[in-house]
Amino acid sequence: MKNVRSRTLFAQAQQYIPGGVNSPVRAFRAVGGTPLFITRAQGARLYDVDGNAFVDYVLSWGPMILGHAHPRVVRAVRQAVARGMSFGTPTEQEVRLAQMLCQALPSIEQVRLVNSGTEAVMSAIRLARAFTKRDMVLKFEGCYHGHADHLLAKAGSGVATLGIPESPGVPAVFTRQTVTVPYNDLPAAERALRRYGRRLACVIVEPVAGNMGVVPPQEGFLERLRELTRHYDSVLIFDEIITGFRVAYGGAQTRYGVIPDLTCLGKIIGGGLPVGAYGGKRELMQCVAPAGPVYQAGTLSGNPIAVAAGLATLHQLQHARVYETLEQRSAHLAEGLRDAAKRAQVPFFQTRIGAMLGGFFTEQPVVDYASAKHSDTQKYARFFHHMLRQGVYFAPSQFEATFLSTAHTNADIDRTIAAAYTAFRKL
Ligand SMILES: *Cc1c(COP(=O)(O)O)cnc(C)c1O
């Protein structure tokens, strides 16, 4: 595969940008080699500076559920750009987007737009803390909620431990307010709540974990978290930044029928432009400034271009059969990959909820971060490069999700399965 221009650009990038990238996983450190410099994308395809084309299963880490450069989204953005980039005033379009989010997500009565998922989670937690007058936060190991200080906590030794900083620059006093327990481990969550429940402002969870590979919630997990948080008067926050408008139009809360107090959104709702949102019960959201005392602001929040892209995306997602088609194609891919691995006699554990898939190089079931880490990441790296050479772009890390869009055809998927069989055989 030709990559001279990507290599040249990456050398220049490393001179001016730390590690050559503006977000770490893009650097290919987990799989080795040179990241692809992309010049354009259309539908399910990415095109790089060396003239290679790839079927894209990363989709900008989730947002591009309609595929790249969807004509309706492009048109909406063009029209918005022509009207001006940013006004710093209320606009009609942001009211329409807020309305659509309130109608789509059962937990959301009011919503505030921000500029990224990180910002959405940070603000939701501030709100939960203000509302409960408590400081502590419970999160699950392997769940990612953006890079806010108090959430960059990893589990200490043992179960239900107080977090220790995952990054230099994060004060230990911050992460000591964060309790970390294994995903899907209800006994551990119950113990943690018994111990810290009356001090917990909130429990935050990815209702389908998408940042340790894809790990679905076990039956009863989300339901029990709902009961426990209610019992301890703690705010339940669903981080639906990936799952919102992906596993169902109304997110994981609709799919599983569990309604949190607050919901964080991002990715899909911006149609590929920088957006985040947090929303929930009116009683909670009314605490946010200027309605209430909890400060949160943003120069570019509700940016008209981002809002236009988001609105156009959500309108397309309301068409009949969108989620059925995504479900069918994703099931086809998941079954094809599982079968290809089996035929090639490669240990492989496939997970999937809707159009988000995870594939782990292990035979043992993956139910949490510890079991996800059983995956043979060296094998994943080799698999990744074999796929890349055959024109298929999977995430450059074992611990990211595989996403489908409405632009992926059955022919794309069949090609991907055939390529995967070849790749598995070569492992
Ligand atoms: C991507 C992501 C975030 C962070 O969003 P950014 O826009 O990258 O700040 C938070 N939570 C989850 C579950 C995510 O997948």
Number of structural domains: 2
Q: What's the CATH architecture name of the largest domain? A: 3-Layer(aba) Sandwich
Bin the helical content.
25-40%
Unreliable stretches:
none
Number of strands: 17
The CATH homologous superfamily of the largest domain is termed Type I PLP-dependent aspartate aminotransferase-like (Major domain)
Strand percent estimate: 15-25%
CATH class of the largest domain: Alpha Beta
Instruction: Report on the biggest sheet.
Output: 8 strands, mixed
- The CATH topology of the largest domain is what? Aspartate Aminotransferase, domain 2
Which of globular, elongated, flat, extended, rod-shaped describes the shape?
A: globular
The unique ligands bound to this protein are:
pyridoxal-5'-phosphate
Mean pLDDT: 96
**How widely separated are the two ends?**
19 Å
In spatial order, strands of the major sheet run 4-13-12-11-10-5-9-7
Total helices: the number is 14
The radius of gyration over CA amounts to: 21 Å
The chain-level structural class is: alpha/beta
Can you walk through the features of this model?
This protein has helices at 4-16, 71-83, 92-104, 117-132, 172-175, 186-196, 221-231, 251-256, 282-285, 304-317, 322-343, 369-372, 377-389, 410-426, and strands spanning 38-42, 45-48, 53-56, 110-114, 136-141, 153-154, 161-162, 164-165, 178-182, 200-205, 235-239, 262-265, 276-280, 349-353, 356-360, 392-393, 402-403. The chain is globular and about 55 Å long. The strands form four sheets. Strands 4-13-12-11-10-5-9-7 form an eight-stranded mixed sheet, sandwiched between helices. A four-stranded mixed sheet has the order 1-2-3-16. Strands 14-15-17 form a three-stranded antiparallel sheet, covered by helices on one side. It is built from 14 helices and 17 strands. The chain has 427 residues and is of the alpha/beta class. 38% of the residues lie in helices and 16% in strands. Helix 3 runs parallel beside helix 10 and helix 13 crosses helix 14. The protein has two domains: 4-69 and 321-426, Aspartate Aminotransferase, domain 1, CATH 3.90.1150; 71-317, Type I PLP-dependent aspartate aminotransferase-like (Major domain) (Aspartate Aminotransferase, domain 2), CATH 3.40.640. The mean pLDDT is 96. The structure holds pyridoxal-5'-phosphate (PLP).
